[in-house]
Design goal:
Two copies of one chain form a homodimer. By secondary structure, chain A is an alpha/beta fold. The first copy, chain A, contains eight helices and twelve strands. Chain A has two domains: 125 residues, Response regulator (Rossmann fold, 3-Layer(aba) Sandwich); 91 residues, Orthogonal Bundle (Arc Repressor Mutant, subunit A), CATH 1.10.10. Chain B binds a DNA duplex (30 and 30 nucleotides) through α6 and α8.
Chain lengths: 226, 226
DNA sequence: GCTTGTTTTAACATTACCTTAACTTTCTGT
DNA sequence: ACAGAAAGTTAAGGTAATGTTAAAACAAGC
């Protein structure tokens, strides 16, 4: 059975690269649209509303990072994934790119297999995360995804990975009650075999850190933050 | 949360003023080094490579303007900002100062708040102007991109390329946790096949040089500087 | 080709984290 | 109020991730 083809907008001022990528992506069953400069790219993205934008950083006129900012600013819903193409030497433009909201990078020269693998991984992750634009602040607690830290009462602290992920999950839908099985499935994956009560222990740790009142128990069901 | 401390070299032959300024600047979280004459100032600037030099114009021996010229002449890369202190009456010397390459002036008597405001504005402008928002200084460690050297506790040393790049990457976003895979992708490129644990070894080397506390491990995720 | 310095790999040691399991407390339905 | 179930709590042990070291592979300069 055939899956719905995802659309990709491709932006590069180099026609050879455009052609090369278009060919490879079409082979992989994506619908490909192309632009050769930042201005056209923005217009095209707004028209097509693609799942993903693959864009060169170096372009005449509006460059990739600027275009990225404009796309992020203009479209409020359904942000496309944006992957930037950089030359190997431009390492530090990647930093700027991350700041501007790029989802990933591919360095030239481009390996088609790697490119496709990255794209598929990104699309899959996006499907999982879907609508949950994850909140970063709740009550007195604020999480910083980049630094992997949590600020509580003005102190910035490090917490173990599982605790962080659990907190992140709760933050993503404040008030929602997560069943233990759901939590395990989301954070541990469906294939791992871990006892449900493990969740309780992590909950305990979080309550130890941030007080008992933040995480609420719904007996017979699961946990939520309130 | 801790900001990166910028260094300031302070030059004045009046000990009261030195003390007064040192106190105020330290309050504002700058690292302050002092000299009481032009000769020492030049040596100190070359050793510390500060972000900013705050220097009196009127000094015995080499005066402020002469010292300024010598600093500008000696240091080819990474010119520090230079702010001159003048008595209100010496307005004419400001002309000479600008000619010699001063970035700003502060007239005595000094208002600490005004001084700090000016300094911060200058540093910010400098960061923007250089277009490299990339930090060069963190804790006691400072990197010199042109010379490929690192200054630590006042000693300028050479470190291997990979270590330097790694440090540079961390400096570019203090606090951010870089995953091993990200680091490999950024510094080695997507096409090279190098084991993730290679990163650990380079981290080890850096910690050996600069102490264990600078680079922080986030288990299951990656490394950051703090 | 040798020498020197750097990078990578690989092996072993250490540690922080995760999980389990056992015991205690609280809740819920009867 | 009671029994049973669910959740709280704690501590110990296992495990995967990282620390650490040394040596092999590699590169640069002489």
């Amino acid at each position: 059975m055939k899956k719905t083809a995802k659309s990709i907008v491709l932006v590069d001022d180099d026609h050879d690269i455009l052609e090369f990528l278009t060919y490879n992506l079409r082979q992989a069953d994506y619908k490909v649209y192309t632009a050769t400069n930042g201005e056209d790219a923005i217009a095209l993205v707004n028209k097509i509303e693609p799942s993903l934008v693959l864009m060169d950083i170096m372009m005449p006129g509006i460059d990739g990072i600027e275009a990225l900012r404009l796309i992020r600013a203009s479209r409020i819903n359904e942000q496309p994934l944006i992957v930037l193409l950089t030359a190997r030497s431009e390492e530090y433009s990647q930093i700027a790119g991350f700041d501007a909201g790029a989802d990933d990078f591919i360095t030239k020269p481009i390996r088609p297999r790697l490119l496709l693998a990255k794209i598929e991984a990104l699309l899959r992750r996006k499907a999982v995360r879907n609508n949950n634009e994850i909140q970063t602040e709740f009550n007195d607690v604020k999480i910083n995804r980049e630094k992997f830290t949590v600020t509580f009462n003005g102190n910035e602290i490090q917490i173990p990975k599982k605790e962080f992920e659990l907190l992140e999950l709760f933050f993503s839908r404040p008030g929602k009650v997560f069943k233990r099985q759901q939590i395990l499935s989301l954070l541990w994956g469906d294939d791992t075999i871990v006892g449900e009560r493990t969740v309780d222990v992590h909950i305990r740790k979080l309550r130890e850190r941030f007080g008992d009142k933040m995480i609420h128990t719904v007996k017979g069901v699961g946990y939520s933050i309130t």
